Amino acid sequence: MTSSLGVTKVTKRFGRGESAVEVLRDISLDAEPGECVSIIGPSGCGKSTLLRLIAGLEQLSSADAGEILVDGKPADRMAGHIGFVFQAYSTFPWLTAKKNVLLALAGSELPPLHRERVALQHLASVRLSEFANTYPDRLSGGQRQRLAFACALAKRPALLLLDEPLGALDALTRERLQIELLKLWLASRSTMVLVTHDISEALLLGHRVLVMCNRPASFILEIDARFEKPWLNGGAGKVPIEEMVRETWKSRAFVDAEDQLRDALS
Amino acid sequence: MMTRIAPALSFALFILVWFVAGRLTPQADVFLPAPDKVAAALRDLFVEQDFANDVVQSIYRVMLGFALAMVVGYPLGIAIGVSKAWEGWVQPLNEFARYLPVAALIPLVIVWAGIGDLQKILIIFLGTVFQIVPMVSDTAKRVPNTLLELGQMMGFSRWRRVIKIVIPATAPEVYDHARIALGWAWSYLIVAELVAANTGIGHVIIQAQRFIQTADVMAGIITIGVIGLAFDTIFRMPKRAFFPWTRS
Q1: Which of B80, B131, B158, B174 has the maximal Cβ count within 10 Å?
Q2: 3-state secondary structure of B114
Q3: For B154-200, what is each residue's pLDDT tens digit?
Q4: Those residues with Cβ within 8 angstroms of residue A239's Cβ, 6 or more apart along the chain or in another chain
Q5: What does A148-173 look like in DSSP terms, one character per residue?
Q6: pTM of the full predicted structure?
Q7: What pLDDT digit, counting tens, does each position of A185-203 carry?
Q8: What's the whole-number mean pLDDT along residues B7-26?
Q9: Secondary structure letter of residue B163 according to DSSP
Q10: Closest among B92, B70, B90 to B82, alpha carbons compared
């Protein structure tokens, strides 16, 4: 299942009276079903606040403005239907990899007897089958985030929100995981909102990239990033995805877009 | 290698210093009986004065008082840790009670519970429960918010988040708190068996002190130390089996 997202003229303040700080001003953002939108911007500009509002982890109070809808329903009533991957602590340390996925499946419509098989399928999709009985703390950083993706996607969420999910990883692992994430998106075609600091990651995974400026945050640039991505144009499955990604990274359009984003952020 | 034998060496050194000090102290039988005298007193206590029965009585009281304190203190601590309302209502009262000297409560407890086992168990309970509550609540408050939000994203209700996240996340640390609280329970045993007791290690120590049988006093104290150490070791051993994810 994949859903649309509509964020309309959202203004969010923290605090009250004169000490209130306006974090987001007049933010609007739409995502079509199956679309991936990347949001990039400087630290502390309000990207994560926007993501938390969409997730329902923060609420719009009477002093705030705007509306957030997922499939036409208020986002804060969609708990259990939105997947979220944080930079850290996206898995439960006291549960093995398989039990983490099983817990993520709790409350799903799957018959309990089938859940174990489905959990193992999800682990296989992130290449963690052999670590089914391993605790997250004994996995590498990359493996742990792959497990987090498996958990977040387990219930086939209407919307997947990713808050700098690869931010804590080294450059090489990060590059590999970007491709893993792309493969997962291709398999699920979930609507995704990705918050990241990494320009290349935002461009590779996003169909559109939005640049957010400092507080109060607003979008100052939008780039269409569908260019030269064969996997978006029926090319998936014909050539290994790694090869397609390498070609995209080298493409003129990708490099130009990187420069454009770098300029906007500087 | 040195680290492994360090505990045995520290005990050996302690006994050596005690032995020398006992030999050098004038009127050592009254002030500081040497280890061999204390060992002899301990043997006499077990062989001639049915000390084993006192030990069993004390273990029974300590374990029951401690268990009762955990049964009450643990859920209260979790409730305070996860709920501002519970924190507001219960924490100030608990902080007040935590600073009350337990010995001062003995007369009151005798009025409420008489002079039987219940009075001793209640003293141990009162000595430990108000310490357990803040330890558990502090641990519950430190559960990373991201884990709770992850549960929220999975659609868990607040109650389910407590059961599925707060309790397992805090379990290893709470287990350590329980070990510490058990140590306190033993330290309150003497207070509990100070008044109106006719059995128990505390009773034996108080009786020996009245007749200036210092070797018996020390034998009783050492018995508490050995039992405490044994319980701590027994408690420590299964921790890795209970909480396998905490293994380094």
Answers
A1: B80
A2: coil
A3: 989 999 999 999 999 999 999 999 999 999 999 898 888 878 788 99
A4: A230
A5: HHHHHHHT--SEEEEESTTTTS-HHH
A6: 0.86
A7: 988 888 999 999 999 999 9
A8: 90
A9: I
A10: B90
Q: Which of A201, A160, A157, A155 is nearest to A177 (CA)?
A: A201
Is the separation of the CB atoms in B80 and B133 below 8 Å? yes
- pLDDT band at residue A215, thresholds of 50, 70 and 90? low
Diameter of chain B by CA atoms? 73
Cβ neighbours of A160 (radius 10 Å): 25
Q: Across the interface, which of A83, A84, A93 has its CB nearest the CB of B245?
A: A93
Say what the pLDDT of residue B145 is. Answer: 93
Contact at CB, A79 and B155, closer than 8 angstroms? yes
For residue A170, report the phi and psi dihedrals to the nearest 5 degrees: -70, 165
The whole-angstrom separation of Cα B199 and Cα A133 is: 51
Using a CB-CB cut-off of 8 Å, the residues of chain A touching B146 are 86, 88-90
Separation of CA B157 from chain center: 36
Tokens read off for B168: 């397992």
- Note the ipTM here: 0.87
Instruction: Identify all chain A residues contacting B158, using CB atoms and an 8 Å cutoff.
Output: none
Which residue among A92, A107, A137 sits closest to B147, beta carbon to beta carbon? A92
Q: Are A126 and A150 in contact (CB under 8 A)?
A: yes
Q: What digits encode the pLDDT tens for the residues A126-157?
A: 999 999 999 999 999 999 999 999 999 988 88
What one-letter code names the amino acid at A46?
Answer: G
Start-to-end Cα distance in chain A:
38
Exposed, middle or buried: residue B222 (CB in 10 Å: 0-12, 13-18, 19+)?
Answer: middle
**Cα–Cα distance between B43 and B218 in angstroms, integer?**
12
Q: Which residue of B has its CA nearest to A84?
A: B153
State the smallest CA–CA distance between residue A241 and chain B in angstroms: 31
A235 — pLDDT class (breaks 50, 70, 90): low
Work out the minimum CA distance from A29 to partner chain B, whole angstroms: 21
Longest dimension (CA), chain A: 59
A186 touches chain B (CB under 8 A): no
Reported as type and span, the H/E element at residue A201 is helix A199-205
> Between A and B, how many CB-CB pairs are < 8 A?
52
CA A160, A164, A168, A170 dihedral sign is positive
Question: CB of B163 within 8 Å of any CB in chain A?
Answer: no
Residue A70: what are its φ and ψ, rounded to 5°? -115, 120
